[in-house]
Input
Amino acid sequence: MNQSIISLREKLDATLNTVSTISELENIKVEYLGKKGSVTALLKNMGSLSPEERKSFGSEVNALKNYVEQAISEKTAILQALELQKELDAVEDFDVSVPPVLEHGSYHPITLVQRKCEEVFRTMGFVVEDYSEIVTDYECFESLNIPPFHPARDMQDTYYLDNGQLLKTQTSAAQNAIYKKYRDALINEGKPIKAVFPGRCFRNEATDACHENTFFQMEGVMVGKDISIANLIYSMKTMLSEVFENYDLKVRLRPGFFPFVEPGFELDISCQICGGEGCPSCKHSGWLELCPCGMIHPNVLKEGGIDPDEYTGFAFGLGLTRLVMMKYGVKDIRDLNSGSLTAMSQFIEDK
Amino acid sequence: MFISMNWIKDYVDLSGLDINKLINQFSLSTAEVENEIFYKGSDIEGIVVAEIKSVEEHPNSEKLHLLKVDIGESELIDVVCGAPNVRVGMKTSFAKVGARIGEITISPRPVAGFVSSGMCCSEKELGISDDNSGIMDLDPSLPLGKDLKEIFDIDDIIFEVDNKSLTNRPDLWGHYGIAREFAALSGRELLPLDVEDLSKYSDLPSLDIKIENDDCLRYSGIKFDNISKTVSPVNMRIRLFYCGMRAINFLADMTNYLMLEVGQPMHAFDSRKVEKIRIKKFDKPFEFTTLDGIERNIDENTLMICNDNEPVAIAGIMGGLDSEIVEDTTALTLESACFDPVSVRKSSSRLAHRTDASQRYEKTLDPELTTIAIARFVKLLKDIDKDAKVISSLTDDYRRSYERKTISIDKAYVDRYTGIGDAISNEHIEKTLKALGFEVEADKGNFTVKVPSWRATKDVTLKADLIEEITRIYGYDNFMPSTAKSSLYPVRMEEEKNLEDNLKDILVKSFRLHELHSYMWAYHDEYKKLGMEICDNVKILNATNPNIETLRRSMVPTQLCQVKVNTGYASDFGVFEIGRVVNGLKENGLCDERKKLAITLFSKNDSVKDLYFKLRDIIAVTINEIKHKELSFSGIDAKYSYQHPKNLNAIICDGITLGEIGIVHPLVSKKIDKKAAIVYAELDVNEICKVENAGIHYEEASKYPGMEVDLTFMADSYAPIKAVIDGEKSPLLKKTKVTDIYVDEEGKAITVRLIFSCMDRTLTREEVQAIVDGIISSLAKENINLKA
Output
């Protein structure tokens, strides 16, 4: 074998042993195989050789070229693997036990409970209505069959405003407007009125852990032909089972007096803590007084432009604030309007 | 109100029935019964009649006595007793060895050196009154050794009815009315009240009674003398005590007993003080001292009982001190009257004095009751005090009654209301109404119903009221629930409600804001602390606290007060609320109530500028997501102390002003936190609702390469550049972005990237350049030039 070829091979082997980066390797490749490379240079000298010599020298150079290519490519693979390993090793071991940063916005708990209730009623075909917080005496009392001088109108319960209006003491204040809004569809198209209307209510009273002057209720009404007490019981039981996600929930009615219903009821549900066995939170009765309800008083329907001899209906009022306190174990009602983020930011989505 | 089952049993025979079950039924059918039921007498046992045979002083004690008592057994019993009223020959209540009083079982035990084998008891110790002045002084005719429970009604079941559940039932403010309910519930007969026939006194002289004001519906009176009793019988005192009243003296106890029995408040005057009874009001306010010794201010709206012109009692509320029965009273005049409920309620709240009488009158008592109560009183009086004499005829001025109603109702109507058809039969309807005292004429499912006076005052006027009577006695627990029949139709979301939900979701989910709730009014004290003024606005007339008397015009100050509370919560946070404000009055005099969305961002890390733009983008994204429209802003002047005069902008969409965005004034801001940046925005939800939703307009993506051109203009504001670019109508210009803004010595440089593309071909440089040139030359006309 030609001496120059042998020495080139030896030189290459020696060089490759010292190479540690891909870019050095690229340079070596050019040094040997480039246009001006040492292997290429060997071929340039071939002109001075005899045809026989040229043939054998040519094949030796080719063999050298193949050898160089293969050696470089093998070395490339080794270096690439090394570099990949280096890259992999460069990433440190993370400590996933570090607590995550749980940053989210929050809903007011009333919003969460209100939405839950609204969803239940929507699935049962009720429309959700909104209403103003400042209402007239007519809306809050007169249209609801609460006569002048009725104790419910007492100054000590109602915030009266200097323009003669008042802060609504009950969501029922929207009833009259809702009857008027939907009565044409009821009378002309036979569509029963099914509506719920959540809202902020106000009572002029001193606040403590159990009393607030500003709280939320959700009222519901259903009016149609032949809406009966049996329907009311069925509807209340079904809706409340959904609201509490308790399908063994029991309800019972007791007589209750509210001027805008007749008959009027207090609805009790089986205690959600003991299931009706009796415990301190239901004062060992097994029942919790939950919501007033009843058959809408004929005078109230009449005032809403609905003939009570043609149509009947039921109404109920749910204390949303109370439901929030029950659901989340809020002990002090004032926390809800406190504006404290430490308290309120805990109420992230709750579907 | 406490109810004694013994008293109920005077009027309805409940033998053989489960009393607890009946009380529960009463709670489910009539009125709410409080959970705790009291089994009176169950904690005492073995108390017998004993006679004190001898009394000796205790050698070492001034108070104690050594007694020998006889309980009819072979030997006398040694007892040590501390009561001051012991005397030989006295019969008293005695707890013998083995007797039980509460937790204590009596056994012989040494007392101050002597063994006492039993205990003489006071009424209080037996739990039958609060009299602890001495041991019981029993009727000497009682047989020795007889168990006290066989003599007195010590065993009783007492339950409490929630007064609130009786507001519409004036008839249930006495035991007789409650007994009527028990009769209906048990199907047993209600016995008549045991009354005196007063007609036998009609020849006696009448009283001088005259009603001079319509607030008195009826005034009945009768006069007695020669009443010798001063202490009420034990059973009467036990009942009063069990029902929550203290025994006072015989006459006072009698009027209280009658009130608890028939529900009619009564009052006894010294006859010398009421010779000419006049019921009237006075023209001028004056002072009047009531029985309890308190001087009260009486005004011209308060109805008074007078002796001619001298006031002697506040009608329906309380008697006067001067006309009280005193020791030398010989003749007394009994008042049994009916007053207007509203008048009594107003007077009692004006006087801030609510009595057992006034709370009954407030319920609209049956005027028929006045004479019934007198007849019952006389009967009871004569039974107890044989010497008592009626010395006048029943005198009755009956001016005004309530309308008597007759209601027609049929079975079909009942069925429609109940929804349970024949489960409630014609017979049930008739039987129930009759048991409750209604007169019923039944004719094959048609009923003509006469409402009794005690239900006619306000409670029962309509068919629906009869439905309640029929169904509650049937029992709501017995109803078979059934679903309403209803046609199918879609339920649409109410637009504003929907908007509110969307706003909340975006702010919470996309921007991690916190929803808070607040109050409708401006908190004077809290605003003042932050240096914010209270804007003149609609006021609450009867706010108990002057701090809350003015309604708020904006939610921003409210929210700033909340931010102040939370400065320690985190170094950065954002809060929002959808709530109401009042923007003064509308032309029609009603409040201009607006629903607002307020957002406040607080940061100790961000610059006020970054925070401001963060808030601007929150609002822009939110509105864009809901309405698919962009916002514009326009500078406005600061009006309130919390507004920073700079960068206060109106937020506008589609030409509708939605609200404002601003920086909190440093004077207010520093009071909240010395270093933090605070920015706020307030939007009118009703106005957002007015903006029409542009909806999504889908445009297919071009398959040909587009072209981007960056231009840098020297301009003070992006607004004129935007105006020109927006005015460029070429369909090839698809999008514009501001990629850089920087300020150097030459001024403000704004780099805009214009993105072009075409649906059906590759764009040429020339056509794009033509559009770009057009934009450049339009801007040049406004003195906005490319950066050199």
Q: What stands out?
A: Chain B touches chain A through 88 residues (CB under 8 Å). The longest strand of chain B covers residues 44-57.
